[in-house]
Task: structure prediction
Amino acid sequence: TLREFFPEQSIVLNIDEEHLDYYANFAAVCGEFTAFADQTEGTIFFCADDPRLVELYAARTDTVTYGFNPAAEYRAELQPDGPFTVYHAGRQVGEFRIRQFGEKNISNAVAVIAFLHRNGFAPEAIARVLETFEGANRRQQMLFADDAIRIFDDYGHHPREIRATLSALREKFAGRLLVAFQPHRYTRTQHLLNEFAECFEGADLLWITEVYAASEQPIPEVNGQALATAVAGTGQPAAYAATLDRLREKVRLALQPGDVVLFLGAGDITHVAHQLASDLKMKRTSHTQALRELLSDKS
Result:
């Protein structure tokens, strides 16, 4: 689909071994990103922290780099109390805050800052907008939160996305991290099985459900059970949930105060995330109503 776009300017975040069901190999994927850059009329903003993008685009003269890399033209520097500072050509552009958490979200924000600053927007205006941005659905989307439990829904379905999301949640919250993952496509699960097996580090409990086919035909011996076995083989405990109903039941039974629950996947696992959030909201509502009735009886 990248070849369908002829943008005036582009932001390229990263490049991964993706959609190998369509492309012959990773070199072909890289070729698509090169063609996309050639089709961009003006400036290409790309992340200097991605070595593959650096290799593809470093020789071009129509680029602007951003990221944590000391060589980036727009360089981010994390601050201990939450905000991050962006520098350009050795000078401070400004100090910024976002509502999302994790270095990947900060990196994406720096891409926006670089793009807007390069196109003439004032740092103060950029900072105001970024601080009010609530994020996109299914990207660290908090569906439920009270004093005891938090439920997140995230579209991540590639090992690098999963690793970054788990790292962000682990850094943000102190409680147990419960993760439920639905693999997306048999071909992706097959091609990236080893990477998937090693990307769930930091999960205290992990459930893997059956592969979401996304119109693909099954591949023999490529399934959720096989992935759960591969993950367990790395020393990371993992359980298999054959159906989404079974997954919902397992997660509910495991919940403890202080838990953070993360549902991951690009398929219909999002329905389970919303159902569990709804269950908890109803439970909280019923407890509140019972307390009100009790207080009313005593008054």
